[in-house]
Amino acid sequence: MGRALTVIRALGMMLMVFSLTYVMPVVTSLIYADHIMLLDFLLAMVWTAAFGFLMWMTTRRCKGELSVRHGYLLVAAMWTAMPAFGTLPLLLSIPGLSFTDAYFETMSAMTTTGATVLTGLDDLPPSINIWRHELQWLGGLGVIVLAVAVLPLLGIGGRQLFKAETPGPMKDASLAPRIADTARNLWSVYLVITLACIAALKWAGMSWLDAVCHGFSTTGLGGFSTHDASVGYFNSPLIEFIMIVFMLFAVVNFATHFLVWRSRSLGAYLRDVEAQTALGLILLSCLTIAFFLWWNGVYTEFTTALRHASFNVVSIGASSGYASVDYAQWPIFAPLWMMFIGCIAASSGSTGGGIKMIRTLVLVKQAGREFVKLLHPSAVNPLKIGGSVIPNGVVFSVLGFIFLYFMTIATLTFVLLISGMDFITAFSATLACVNNFGPGLGAVGPASNYAGLTDFQTWVCTFGMLVGRLEIFTVLILFTPQFWRR
Amino acid sequence: MKILILGAGQVGSTVAESLVSEANDITVVDSDGAKLALLQERLDLRTLTGNASHPSVLEQAGIADTDMLLAVTQSDEVNMVACKLAASLYNTPTRIARVRSADFLARPELFNKDNFCVDFSICPEQILTDYITKLIEFPEALQVLRFSQGKASLVAVRAFAGGPLVGKPLSILHDNMPHIDARVAAIFRKDSPLIPEGSTVVEDGDEIFFIAATNNIRAVLKEMRRMDKPTKRVMIVGGGNIGRRLAQVLERDYQVKLIEYNKKACAKLAEELTSTLVLNGDGTDEKLMQQENVGEVDVFCALTNDDENNIMSALLAKQGGARKVIALINRSAYVDLLQGGKIDIALSPANVTIGSLLAYVRQGDVAAVHSLRRGAAEALELVVHGDRQSSKVVGRRIDEIDLPKGATIGALVRGDEVIMGHHDTRIEADDHVIVFVINKQMVKKVEKLFQVSLGFF
Fold first, then answer.
1. B166, B174 Cβ separation under 8 angstroms
2. pLDDT of A4-37, one tens digit each?
């Protein structure tokens, strides 16, 4: 029991930290002088902080060590509690918004999915928009990673939490001897890239508000926009180009970015096979789809086809979720292929979602290994990626992951079908949520949004986003009997 | 010369054996007394049991008046430390260390006089690997030896009926290849040497040694025998130091399969090698060989550290249809027994590697020494110094030089140019002269001939 209390104590502290994130929208509403919003945000901040304080106060004497299983429990609890508190300003300021929709919106923000139930984004108060995008930015690299970075509060359990939240099969990116330093390093790189993105977007002609919001959601690979027409609103090739560049940056493991930064040489990029494969796949897809669109006469000029194909393919492929045109109107090969690479392209340790390229590589190589095994029964053929051997244990865990991943997709699709949704919408919505890229096809396509879903369907999608962001194991482990057995 | 050898392993003992026969005072130090006892039984030398990197042991071994230190223990670190001690404490003039680890070799500044004071570092495994690589590149050749950083090569080849030169006198070599200059240095017919002259007729089965510029080797080989298809598939048995290095070098250009018995070693090999197929199994398991298509293999190399295993697996591979088989054999009795039989090339590591050490021990300026025909013959690369007065060779035509019978000047390397040794070729100072000696006893005489007389100083 003492250990469960430790979880509550840690959760309370995390919530108090989380309440600090309201500072940004508060400052925004001061700048834009909308006093009603200021009050709402301050109220939400106090509520969150007070709740966290209460939890911490009552359990502050429980300083037990966080075990492996409590680490998972804490991460899952954080990732359900934070969006819940995040709904406060939305519920206070947008009349008629149900808790279900508000929770979907904040979960979509924190998991960097980018699916929205809100319409009339252009008319939302600036502070609300900043809030949505800030959540997306924080969720990108992970709130807990941030907490570990700024507060060595968790001490012993830090590495465990870090592992439970960071995506990818191998989580020993030992950038520094201490986990807190590692987390700090990652966040510094993330911050620098984000600031560069904001500056570039401002330079390209966005307003400060738009630049900051889109800067947040681009590097977080979120996909929220301040406009209903998404990036299509700006209709600017320059802006699209800048966002493509930064999305491609964010799809690479941030540990690699850090190594490049620290060593002041591009060597680390050249050694990162995962990033190379991911970028190669995305760029090849851009060209293929551009050619395909031009060939099918969707766009009469190849350059136009290339522009729209590039932006949308990178956006979905990197699991962001912006749209510059209604790509659902393209011949079905194009959007399905975009969604397919959205499932696999993002690197581990990046801000993207999906299976992750490293797992795809492991599976491809494992398949090749089986062929070799058939031809040469006595061959010793370890699985190597970029010259280093992947232990068999990791290969098995990837196989387990991929099974759960497909089962999750299938199950959620069936559940949505039972609820009365059509197949294309159900399947694409499941893919879009579990892989955190946002817009699907059909009723949830880029031209519309998730507002039309029933409450039940919305909850299913919300669950899909959480499961996808925490890479299935962290969430599903809570539903196994072994977890609760003492 | 007083020579101190540290380490009585394979390298240490073969070096000792070969140096004793050249009238040197040898002391061997090793931590294993049994090995030393064995050595002392056979050879006329002094031995000492102890840790080769301890000053007290070195002093006892007489390092104070030693001319040359040869540190060839199993451990790179001990070898390097011994050189450092010899330099700092005892002022030993020449220090040679065996250094195997590529990590050390990648930082040559480690060996200079401010650091470990290693005058020359040798790596027998690397020499063997280079040697085998050449054999795989020229599968028709029995031996390919490099001189002057690879500018000129001495190649041994067995003549076979079908080669344009076979059955004809040597003098037509020049008519057949007017643009290519090559010189036949020696011919061994039924193991006895012939002095090649223009009228000598090449017979089927002759072992021919010729010297040519390295990029002409293939053209000359064509004259001696029908050419094989170029090598594509290589199978190696044994993933030790040599097998691993060889696979590393070859895997870029050939399809390499490597068979290793030890499971753990296999895992490590598979980690280090990129495109080599590592197989876990016994090198003498004919089922495994068949499964891996030994019949399609162009060159099969048995490189474990067990002579008998190497012989057996090479024989099995030959039986299974491998085109050319090479076996690594340490015991010289076995080498003589097998060479030229079913096993195409019986490789004695001692003979291959000893040359690089001998070059440092010899009198005069010897740039390279290669043992030929299991140590019976020798090819030397000598650097010519002095002028017409102080030297017996400078400024003279080759036919004016008083070479002992059986020694031939095959070629000389002047700058970047490779010049064949004709009777009217004049030798200049700083030439690298490649001399072929059919009998080792003449080596001393040849060296003396090339030494600068005292008047030079």
1. no
2. 788 888 888 888 888 888 998 989 888 888 777 8
Question: What is the distance between the alpha carbons of residues B173 and A388, in angstroms, rounded to a whole number?
Answer: 53
Q: What is the mean pLDDT of residues A193-208?
A: 93
Is the model's pLDDT at A347 over the cut of 70? Answer: yes
Yes or no, beta carbons of A378 and B291 under 8 Å apart: yes
Q: Do A381 and B277 touch (CB under 8 A)?
A: yes
- Inter-chain residue contact A380 with B267, CB threshold 8 Å: yes
Those of residues 338-377 in A touching chain B at CB distance below 8 A are 372, 376-377
Inter-helix orientation angle A455-469/A68-93, to 10°: 140
Could you tell me if A473 and A440 are in contact, meaning their C-beta atoms sit under 8 angstroms apart?
no
Give the ranges where B295-338 is alpha helix by DSSP (H). 307-320, 332-338
Quick one: which of B288, B334, B305, B285 has its CA closest to B244?
A: B305
A421: left (phi over 0), alpha (psi -120 to 50) or beta: beta
Per-residue pLDDT tens for A401-460? 899 999 999 999 999 999 999 999 999 999 999 999 888 898 888 888 888 899 999 999
DSSP SS3 for B122? strand
Write the ipTM: 0.73
Q: How many whole angstroms separate alpha carbon A106 and alpha carbon A114?
A: 10
Quick one: pLDDT at residue B457?
44
- Give the C-alpha separation, B321 to B325, whole Å: 10
User: What residues of chain A lie within 8 A of the CB of B274, using their CB?
Assistant: 384, 387
pLDDT for the residue numbered A271: 84
Helices (H) and strands (E) in chain A, counts: 22, 3
Interacting residues of A5 by C-beta distance below 8 A, sequence separation 6+: A59, A62, A64
What number of C-beta contacts closer than 8 Å exist between A and B? 35
Looking at beta carbons, which residues of chain B come within 8 Å of A384? 271, 274
B244-298: pLDDT as tens digits: 999 999 999 999 999 999 999 999 999 989 889 999 999 888 899 988 989 999 9
How many Cβ atoms are within 10 Å of A418's Cβ, its own excluded? 11
Are A377 and B291 an interchain contact pair (Cβ–Cβ within 8 Å)?
Answer: yes
User: Which strands form B25-30's sheet, in the order they lie side by side?
Assistant: B46-49, B25-30, B2-6, B68-71, B94-98, B120-122
**Residue A184 vs residues A200, A218, A263, A352, B68: alpha-carbon distances, Å:** 24, 21, 17, 19, 57
Give me the mean pLDDT over the A333-337 stretch.
Answer: 93
Q: What is the pLDDT of residues B72-96, one digit of tens each?
A: 998 999 999 999 999 999 998 889 9
Tens of pLDDT, residues B339-350: 667 888 888 887
Closest approach of chain A CAs to the CA of B318, in angstroms?
21
From chain B, the residues in CB contact with A378 under 8 A are: 279-281, 288, 291
Beta bridge partner(s), residue B289: none
Residue of B nearest to A374 (CA): B291
* Cβ–Cβ gap B279/A378 under 8 Å: yes
- β-pairing, B366-372 vs B377-383, is antiparallel
Determine contact, residues A443/A451, Cβ cutoff 8 Å. no
Q: Reply yes or no on whether the pLDDT at B456 is more than 60.
A: no
For residue A390, the chain B residue with the least C-alpha distance is B271
Backbone angles phi and psi of A388, in degrees to 5: -110, 150
Q: Which amino acid is at B237?
A: V
**Cβ of B263 and A377 within 8 Å?**
no
How far apart are the CA of B110 and the nearest CA of chain A, in angstroms?
25
* Helix, strand and coil percent figures for chain B, each rounded to 5: 35, 25, 35
CB contact A155 to B (< 8 Å): no
Whole-number Å distance between alpha carbons of A246 and B420: 65
In this structure, the dihedral spanned by the alpha carbons of residues B429, B431, B432 and B433, taken in order and rounded to 10 degrees, is: -90
The pLDDT of residue A385 = 85
